[in-house]
Design goal:
Blueprint: H1 5-8, E1 27-35, H2 38-45, E2 66-71, E3 83-86, H3 102-105, E4 140-142, E5 147-149, H4 156-159, H5 162-172, E6 180-183, H6 187-199, E7 206-209, H7 213-221, E8 226-228, H8 233-241, E9 245-246, E10 249-250, E11 254-259, H9 264-273, E12 274-282, H10 294-298, E13 302-305, H11 311-324, E14 330-334, H12 339-347, E15 356-360
Parallel strand pairs: 6-7, 6-11, 7-8, 11-12, 12-13, 14-15
Antiparallel strand pairs: 1-2, 1-4, 1-15, 2-3, 3-5, 9-10
Helix pairs in contact: 5-6, 5-11, 6-11
Length: about 375
């Protein structure tokens, strides 16, 4: 059963031990809300790829979808309350590495080449690094460059959606306005849809696959032209793109397919419905998958990863969260002591009519 690793795996509730500040410029944060992400669930359940082993340091406190208060020190907060969200990527500048790598120098901090080096322990993000702590706690640390101030008009529930929405904004940059399929209507799928609608002008229909009634309802509300079950996707893409069919393969298809699941089945279906010369955008985190790739070769299609975000994506995400009212996707919050129930709820969110589950530390 998904989420059962919370009860039998390496996760436990421990007394807070505030991590040391790596350098004097770092600040302490008191998390208010922290979301539970699919990548968190994969690590808890032991299904994450071995690729991550050298990019994570143990023991670590999970939680990278964080809205928190800055703890004032040495006048850092300048006498004012700061409520922030965290950009979790632990890139060169955060790690005290100079000169920065080529990716960071080009502004692509999400592609940083040094996430296992510098004065921090290895960790591609906050919430996967021993040195920083994480949002599933009452105290963590962050570098000032990781902090984005939350506008006063946004609730904590809206703010905790900014980080996952930044992922979706980053993905939406690949949208080209033409016929598009989004596979999956969990958090990432719904947010990718919302980001596309908020930041782009659509000329072709957007088709979204969804399994559960609440996912279908939200997908329609957020702007999907067609919402269908996954086994209905080829028929809808065939109809809207005027494709023929050879075997199971569409002869035409969507120029862009956003896979927000990351499973063998979802990637294979994406290759089935993507147009010749088109691109499958891997928004969902894949693990070990088994694929038939002959069509990719024959049709000159591509699979491209979509990982994380840049600072500019967070600024756009704030606008998307506000305009689309994405705080409504926070379905339930739990205190830390109920972590097994929270993780089980998150792991089975779709079938339980939920989207985003978060921990709530505001009473601490």
């Amino acid at each position: 059963m998904p989420g059962r690793g919370a009860a039998v795996g390496p996760l436990s509730l421990e007394p807070d031990e505030a991590p040391a500040l790596p350098t004097p410029e770092w600040v302490r944060l008191k998390p208010r809300l922290a979301g539970i992400c699919g990548s968190d669930l994969a690590l808890v359940d032991g299904t994450a790829s071995a690729y991550f082993d050298p990019l994570v340091s143990y023991p670590f406190v999970p939680g990278h979808e964080v809205v928190a208060d800055v703890v004032a020190h040495d006048g850092y907060a300048h006498g004012r309350h700061r409520r922030v969200v965290v950009i979790p990527v632990l890139h060169c500048a955060v790690r005290g590495i100079a000169p920065v790598c080529a990716a960071c120098a080009a502004g692509h901090t999400n592609r940083c080449e040094r996430v296992a080096f510098g004065h921090l322990e290895p960790g591609l993000q906050t919430g996967f690094c021993e040195s920083t702590g994480g949002g599933w706690s009452t105290e963590m640390v962050a570098h000032p460059s990781q902090l984005v101030d939350v506008p006063d008009d946004l609730s904590d529930e809206a703010a905790v959606m900014i980080e996952p929405t930044a992922c979706a904004v980053h993905a939406a940059k690949r949208y080209d306005g033409s016929h598009t399929a989004i596979i999956g209507a969990g958090t990432l799928g719904l947010l990718t849809l919302a980001a596309i609608r908020a930041t782009s002008d659509a000329t072709g229909p957007i088709i979204v696959t969804a399994r559960y009634p609440e996912q279908k309802r939200l997908a329609k509300e957020l702007g999907a032209d067609v919402v269908c079950a996954s086994d209905e996707l080829p028929r809808w893409v065939r109809s809207t793109t005027h494709s023929l069919v050879v075997g199971d393969q569409l002869t035409c298809g969507c120029p862009r397919v956003f896979d927000c699941v990351g499973s063998s089945d979802s990637i294979q279906q994406a290759l089935q419905v993507v147009a010749p010369g088109g691109e499958v955008e891997m928004v969902g985190m894949p693990g070990n998958v088994s694929l038939e790739l002959t069509s990719l070769w024959h049709r000159e299609t591509a699979i491209r990863g979509v990982y994380a975000y840049t600072r500019a994506d967070f600024d756009t995400a704030i606008d998307v969260v506000r305009s689309a009212g994405l705080e409504r996707l926070v379905s339930a919050t739990y205190p830390l002591r109920d972590y097994t129930d929270a993780i089980a709820h998150a792991a089975n969110a779709g079938r339980r009519g939920a989207v985003k589950i978060a921990f709530d530390m505001r009473s601490h």
